[in-house]
Amino acid sequence: MSAPAVPMTDAPGSAARKRPRAARPRVQHRGAILAFVLPFGTLFALFYLVPIGYAIYQSLLVIEREGTFGQATEVFGGLTQYILVFQNGPFWQSIGRVLAFGAVQVPIMLGLALLFALLLDSPLVRGKKFFRLAFFVPYAVPGVIAAIMWGYLYSPNLSPFSAVTENINFLSADLVLWAIANVVTWVFVGYNMLIIYSALLAIPTELYEAARLDGAGQLRIAWSVKIPLIMPAIILTAIFSIIGTLQLLAEPQVFRSFSSAVTSTFTPNLTVYSTSSIPNFNLAAAFSVVLALATFILSFTFLKFTQRKEAK
Amino acid sequence: MSTLTPTTPAKPTRGIRSTEAKAPRAQRESPFARVSAMIVMGVFTLYFLVPIWWLLVAASKSRSQFNSTNPLWFADFSLFENIGNLMAYRDGVYLKWMLNSALYAGGGALVGTIIAGMCGYALAKYNFPGRELIFNVVLGGVLVPATALALPLFLIFSQISLTNTFWSVFLPSLVSPFGVYLARIYASASVPDELIEAARLDGAGELRTFFTVSVRMMVPALVTVFLFQFVAIWNNFFLPLIMLRDETLFPVTLGLYAWNSQVNQIPVLRDYVLIGALLSIIPLIIIFLLLQRFWRNGLSAGSVK
Fold it and tell me: Do the domain assignments include residue B183?
């Protein structure tokens, strides 16, 4: 948990080193600090920490009935729900599905975002303001709305591109996952492009001048100077994309009304939702905990992995 | 790192320089490279804008012309008539949804930004035991998917009969761990200790110093936090889906989703879904355009460590 903080902030040690200037043993401004931290801290505890704890607690309970129609009571069941989770085929299929989705969609999306950011930052493109805005506009479209819109664009009879959609059924079982991938890409390329582009703008121009004097072309400068320098921004976008992929819910949920191929267990979050509507809250809670853990581990591992690579 | 200062001295010079240097530099690039770059940008402009263009065109057509005319060009322009119909449908429930979204997102982002700003500022500018622990826990919160919290929140809220209320969606939306993170790195880079010290010597209290002096230096970061929280709440779907049953409490995303899933039973809803979708995009576009100047600076602070 402490790792993400390390590169971004003063290490605890350096904070201690600054102390002697103030040279006071007691914490100063105690009341003010409390006033600053408490409002957020309280809400964070109530709406982040407590729910996490409650989900774990719920996931450890099982429902017991006296006879078939008897009173249902919740009793401690240990890891019973987790055993059910690990035996649940559809849930793991849905995890596999979003992992496949992420493995294809995230690199394409970030690759495009990087390409556009580099083009915007190069002297090759004119009308930068226009392109920056045009590419960013889809981000203003909520996922649900984007999915509804593309649902119509894909549909064989309503689509403006019916010449294509009559021949290729984007809503079929084979293609619907990638149809959804396109919706997500459409919404988020511009957003990621802007994050990367902002990082590019922060690079001092002198660095390019030096490379240019050495005779490096645009491509070479992009590859050897720009990309290494904006790696932190790319990693940031990658982590948010990984988290987003595992959380996929709104788009597939909308696509259920366009395509019967999207089942109620299509993504992990859909599984959580449909399990809780049964209602089987204990199992749904266990799904949530496993999913949150998987997300945390995946993004954390990615962070560690890329940090090590950078250090080399 | 220079972009972390609110005045961003590096960027203006960069801008001036690149325009000055543009002419001689552009000549050095091969025409082939320039043409292919423009083609790539042009093709993707179509990719990004044609769906929205189609939505605008579709929303401007009467029902009879929706299928019978060119889907990418206007027929008789009945957009305003359609909007009128949408507003009148079921006693203007759509307008209520837009209002709800504005309240959830506007109110939530405003309060959320203030408390995240205060917390990030305290973490940046004061030394106290547990500071790093708090920061690390909050950072861990950034990695916890918000949807994982929706179900347990529902279970907790149903214990205290708070589900299906305004507060069940509003309160959890106030918490933005990423906002605290951004506010902290921005505050430590852009609010000079000397300034706080000077305010102290003038006899200003800590809170007053924050709200009158420090906040001003943090504006780009705070606007960015506000915007991204606004968008996150405006787009939020799972939490309202799981919490709300009463249609009059729906945000616009959930409302349109509900309509869209009934299109097969009530065909007229298709028109309303399309017009409603178009209208629901407009507020966000306006906000982004209005606050452009701020969030672009703030964004770079988040990515530059």
Answer: yes
